[in-house]
């Protein structure tokens, strides 16, 4: 807009005083002005982009300070390894062996200890096996004459690289040894093509393995000692957090459906809570990768070395199965076609009871997973949930009768007229209106059934991971009675 | 068991003939036998594992021969780069610059062209910027005296490595520059810590960039010339294939529900087809990564350079939204509680019509996406689908009436008795039984509505990607009339 104004101004000026030099000056000042405006705009854009980027980065850091700490950890590890070499005059070339230590640190250092171990072990094992293999082939090639030597070496590189690359497509290998295979191909090619004599290669291999070991050691020490992040623990927390999210979502969705008018205030945070199940829908990838990495971790905290991480994936799958159904429930709740409020009122209490019961079951198994203790009250809670399912089914069965008995004044009058004429009760007329309510109720029942699947999966997890059993004799633990107390009043809700 | 038998045999022998030497011989032969059994078992296990692994690998190769070709391509590229250096006496050390070419090929070569380009460009740009930056800091450090020099270098490594590592947590940067940042940190640390003089470094940097360029060039040439796999095309095909899967699933599920007895033969392939929507549920990760890589690809085949790849993600999201609902429908169809067959029969035709109409819409947009032509018949098909939705709603509305009018013999008698006593029609009684049918029907309606969302997303894609418009004057194309013809008879189904 500034430029447009400027152009108009210039035009006016030229029209009124058409002298050559003045016009040129004007043109020049116009250009300067334009350039200045452009520069200012550029600077403003850059500044605003940088600040928005900074804000985004700041938010990420504030949300999870461990990410900032991870950055610092990488800095520490790199500085350590570089100081190690800087203080000693060992570094006699960019290609020297010290390089491998720096490279190892940069490439291996991952956010979780499992990631570090996975890459470190893969790198070490792949380097040594590929190195040995390449040395052997090198020796054979050197014995078979100058002409055959390059053929043997090239064809071995071709064959091994092709086979190893293809093996990366096999899911099990991909999950556990992907990085190792890259390093295997790399080391094999480097050694096989190097053109060194075997004794020289042995010295080099020794140096290289030594520097890689130093790199891996520095990585692991920094990774484990400075605020470690364990992939296993992350998976454990992710799964139990997702259960809480499912529970919250379910409660909110059903409450939202039956008490729409009461939720106007604080609606944003409310709808955020009700959409928590969407995180569950999208958490497959991170669960898979964390379970993969957790396998490499030694025992830590409450988790033994052979902790059944793969069972967490089954729990996760059961939760997703549940979340799919909640997606459909959400769609049904937010659909345009809705049952009238007076019909909803008939099922409100029993539906709320079921959703509360189901969410309590989820919360109970979540806290059981979190604390790694068998749950004392889960059987009672599941029974309550099942009772609520039955109650809802009974309520659904009696709904048409109720509707015929107590329609709202207007509907009653209308229904009465129709009933007289056609001998068709109000239930028939309003069936179409009740349908969305039916669908919602059936989906709610289906959700509870699927929660049963989650409970089973968690039960298997409890057995496999040897959760702390319930002490039947002393029921005076601090957690369980509170849970049971909190259950009782809810039955009167 | 063999070992157990063996041990018993030994015991018997020792009891009957307790001579020293004979017992020893027996013990020896026992051990030999044991060892032989163990060895045979070991060999058998290894052989069976290897064969099962081989079968698995063979199946993967047969399912997608491009994976085998990819392996061969990597072999070719590595052989090329190694021959390049083997034939010239340039290679004067494992750490020589030639190493970088080999390393570049191993690390950069990816399955898709987009992956190769992403890594190649990231590597080249990151190496040059980090190298330049490190040179600058090196120069500053060398000017500031021997004591301050290591401090400046180490602290710059620490700060840059920390900041760069943290920046990898920012989603946009992670998606586009993750690999580049690793290489940036690596190059910067290597150069900054190297301890060379600046002029020496310049020569090294030049050599290194040259060898990396050679590596990238070889990779790209092999990747693009030998049976290229384009990430963009993969995404394109994945999305349209997923639409077909959704269509097939929906048809099968509904058919399965209403004609359970007719589908006994060939049930396996049938149930496989009906579960196709599960692929859609799990395809988010591959869609995301392919869309990320497709951005780096130049125009290829029917796709321009600025093809709207991100819109494919929106289409994918709309399809998943649809698949969630089909998950719930599947649950409902496979649930234990089922509406009686005679009730199902009332809705069978109209539900089948709707599912067929919906699946036709999906197949039509799938073929429109596949051929990148605007669809001629999509509006008609969507209209038909919406009509079928309305028909189903009408049928649902009239269902209670129909049920009261024509119950099956047994039910009719029962209903009649109850009706006389309580003046409650059969509709009320059987409502609970009809409920699963209602739920299935509502979910079917919801699925069609969500398919509408997919149609909209594909419409946007057609606009953004400039699909070939319909030629209104010449309707004699080979595809469209056949589609329209195939639509007509189905209306009589």
From TrEMBL, chains A, B:
Keywords: Ion channel, Ion transport, Membrane, Transmembrane, Transmembrane helix, Transport. The chain crosses the membrane at residues 68-86, 98-118, 151-171, 177-198, 210-230. Residues 473-493 are annotated as: Disordered. It is found in: Membrane. It comes from the Eukaryota. It is a multi-pass membrane protein. Belongs to the aromatic acid exporter (TC 2.A.85) family. It holds the Pfam family ALMT. This is Aluminum activated malate transporter. GO terms for biological process: malate transport; monoatomic ion transmembrane transport. One of its GO terms (cellular component) is membrane.
């Amino acid at each position: 807009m500034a430029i447009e104004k400027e152009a108009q101004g210039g035009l006016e000026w030229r029209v009124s005083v058409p002298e050559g030099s003045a016009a040129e000056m004007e043109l020049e000042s116009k250009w300067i002005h334009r350039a200045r405006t452009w520069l200012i705009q550029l600077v403003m854009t850059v500044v605003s982009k940088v600040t928005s980027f900074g804000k985004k980065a700041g938010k990420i850091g504030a949300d999870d300070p461990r990410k900032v700490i991870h950055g610092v950890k990488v800095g520490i590890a790199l500085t350590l390894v570089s100081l190690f070499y800087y203080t000693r005059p060992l570094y006699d070339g960019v290609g020297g062996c010290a390089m491998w230590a720096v490279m190892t640190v940069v490439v291996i250092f991952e956010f979780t200890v499992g990631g570090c171990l996975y890459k470190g072990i893969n790198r070490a094992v792949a380097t040594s096996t590929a190195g040995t293999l390449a040395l052997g082939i090198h020796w054979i090639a050197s014995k078979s004459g100058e002409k055959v030597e390059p053929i043997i070496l090239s064809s071995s590189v071709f064959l091994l690289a092709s086979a190893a690359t293809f093996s990366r497509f096999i899911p099990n290998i991909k999950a556990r040894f992907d990085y190792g295979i890259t390093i295997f191909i790399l080391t094999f090619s480097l050694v096989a093509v190097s053109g060194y004599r075997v004794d020289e290669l042995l010295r080099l291999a020794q140096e290289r393995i030594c520097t890689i070991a130093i790199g891996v050691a520095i990585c692991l020490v920094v990774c484990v000692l400075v605020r470690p992040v364990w992939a296993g623990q992350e998976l454990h927390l992710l799964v139990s957090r997702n259960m809480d999210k499912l529970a919250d979502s379910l409660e909110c969705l059903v409450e939202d459906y039956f008490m729409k008018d009461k939720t106007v205030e604080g609606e944003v945070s409310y709808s955020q809570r009700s959409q928590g199940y969407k995180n569950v829908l999208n958490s497959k990838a991170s669960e898979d990768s964390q379970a993969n990495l957790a396998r490499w971790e030694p025992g830590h905290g409450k988790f033994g070395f052979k902790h059944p991480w793969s069972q967490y994936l089954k729990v996760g799958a059961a939760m997703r199965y549940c979340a799919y159904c909640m997606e459909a429930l959400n769609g049904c709740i937010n659909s345009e076609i809705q049952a009238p409020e007076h019909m909803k009122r008939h099922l409100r209490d029993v539906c709320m009871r079921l959703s509360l019961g189901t969410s309590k079951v989820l919360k109970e198994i979540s806290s059981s997973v979190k604390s790694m203790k068998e749950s004392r009250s889960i059987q009672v809670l599941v029974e309550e949930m099942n009772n609520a399912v039955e109650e809802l089914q009974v309520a659904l069965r009696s709904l048409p009768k109720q509707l015929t008995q107590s329609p709202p004044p207007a509907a009653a009058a209308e229904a009465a007229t129709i009933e007289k004429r056609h001998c068709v009760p109000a239930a028939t007329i309003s069936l179409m209106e009740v349908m969305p309510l039916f669908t919602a109720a059936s989906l709610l029942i289906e959700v509870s059934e699927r929660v049963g699947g989650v409970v089973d999966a968690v039960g298997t997890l409890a057995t496999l991971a040897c959760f702390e059993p319930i002490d039947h004799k002393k029921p005076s633990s601090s957690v369980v009675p509170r849970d049971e107390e909190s259950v009782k009043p809810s039955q009167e809700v």
